[in-house]
Specification:
Length: 135
């Protein structure tokens, strides 16, 4: 079964969903993972209490880019209240395979950028620990 998940991750990496930028974004953030060289930016259009549109643009390893693609599918059209609750376990569940401690920063980069974009837009409070404690 883990091979199916590996194929799923590679599919998201090779054919990322919601890839690009949004000219009308009202929430945006960028960040990088200097250990691996991953870079990621997320654009959101928040309409009322929903994430109406999401796009991400980045480059990096398969785990970081596939995680961003999966996250974009998870949040588009969802209530903001649900989106702000997303955490590390949601990303790990989406990936479907165990991630080594060395790769967790790659997997969680999308989550850190998402929460930062929501914080910069005044939708949620900034997270103090982002992903420093990858337990």
């Amino acid at each position: 079964m883990s091979m199916d998940y590996r194929d799923y991750i590679l599919d998201h990496y090779r054919n990322p969903r919601n890839y690009g930028k949004l000219a009308n974004a009202n929430a945006h953030a960028e960040d990088s993972n200097p250990l691996c060289g991953d870079q990621l930016g997320i654009d959101l259009v928040i309409e009322g209490d929903r994430v109406a549109e999401v796009r991400f643009k980045g480059r990096g390893c398969a785990i970081s880019q596939a995680s961003a693609s999966m996250l974009s599918e998870m949040i588009e059209g969802k209530p903001v209240e649900e989106v702000v609750q997303l955490g590390k376990d949601d990303i790990l569940d989406a990936l479907g395979i165990p991630i080594s401690p060395a790769r967790t920063k790659c997997a969680f980069l999308c989550l850190r950028v998402l929460h930062r974009s929501l914080a910069l837009a005044g939708i949620e409070k900034p997270h103090d620990n982002d992903d420093d404690n990858d337990d």
